[in-house]
Amino acid sequence: MKGDITNREKRLRRRGVVRDEANRIANERELEWIKQRDRDIEMKQLSELERQRIEQIEIRRKARHDKDELNRLKEEEKLKAETR
Q1: What's this model's pTM, rounded to 2 decimal places?
Q2: Dihedral (C-alpha) 31, 37, 43, 48: value to the nearest 10 degrees?
Q3: Could you read off the pLDDT of 11-35 as tens digits, one per residue?
């Protein structure tokens, strides 16, 4: 009867298996939570980069407009000076 497993040993083994399974599930949930948090952080960073990119485009557009306006005013001033 040395090879026989007692009911107590069976219960202990089963508890160990159940405990291991519960730990595995908890670890998987924590890992998924961490991955989701990382995805959220990455999305926030991408959104901020996109906002900055759009802001830079607007700054360049305004600078180009201001430069064109200045050139137009200089050209008008030059034409006025020539007609005098």
Answers
A1: 0.62
A2: -140
A3: 999 999 999 999 999 999 999 999 9
